Amino acid sequence: MKRLMILAVLLLVCLTGVPGRAAMTIKLGVVTKPGSAQNIAAAKFKELVEQRSQGAITVKIYDSASIGNETEILQQIQMNTVQMGIITSGPFDTFDPIVRVIDYPFLFKDNDQADAILDGPIGREILTALEASGFKGLCYSENGFRHLTNSRRPVKGPEDVKGLKIRVMASAMHKTIWQTLGANPTPMPWPVYTELEQRVIDGQENPLWLMVEYKLWEVQKYLTLSRHVYSPHIDVASLAWWRTLDAATQELLATAMRDAALYQRQHNRDGDAERLRLLKENGFIVEENPDLDGMRRKVAGLKDMDIYREPRVKAMLTRLLEAVQGR
């Protein structure tokens, strides 16, 4: 009998990796290709979870939009056909407009300020608000500060933006920013290399890492270091699925995602100087000191526009602006 009990315990360990924890595979969706910012966070999360669970939990990463664009991945997370995702903040505003406050233009002056706000009470409130849409908000990794590229002309100030057909995310906030600056914003899912190459659109706006990973110098000529939006990823899980997990598993996953996010943020920031050098070396004409004050003046009225008319969104934006001014 004793021998049978020992064999049973050994079998359980083989099957689950940790006594008492059922084996589990987590599907995690990202829209970008390996080596990209989202994928770096996803790969680190996978490494930490599988290590800390001693193999009981496996993470399967679905990258390169293999299961859909970011909006479609979020819909699958809502339905629990995909359990987790590392998603750019912009597409969330289709599900809850509260997220628009994060993407307010020229909001954060630097990375430290963005971290202080998003890792603080306001950032946590926004994550909690996503539960009403079926998401468990865990933490923020990052895309980084977004910059403008185009194939038509140098952009030194807001007057140069006029008429440019710019690809934007499926986000009312981002569309409104570029409309206000005078461009013709065109929502499209990523990637848009072919559309840029065929001149269906004139340009796009994204962090430097993306321009390097997708070799945008092949289809774009001008880069403006506009830093117009700090773009986080919101790292989420299916709320319906999350609630089926025991507290210990929730803690393991939440801590692993937080550690992965911190790792990825630092990795992203450490590489920007080298990325800018590569972009110049490969032919980008870079405007390093555009008229940001002029751009800020053009978008200053956004806080009073209809996209912020919902009382709770307007109240959150007011708190966020006050918090930023106080730092």
Automatic annotation (TrEMBL):
Keywords: Receptor, Signal, Transport. Pfam families: DctP. It comes from the Bacteria. One of its GO terms (biological process) is transmembrane transport. Residues 1-22 form the signal peptide. The keyword Signal applies. InterPro entries: DctP_fam, TRAP_DctP, TRAP_DctP_sf. GO terms for cellular component: outer membrane-bounded periplasmic space. Belongs to the bacterial solute-binding protein 7 family. This is Tripartite ATP-independent transporter DctP family solute receptor. It comes from Desulfoprunum benzoelyticum.
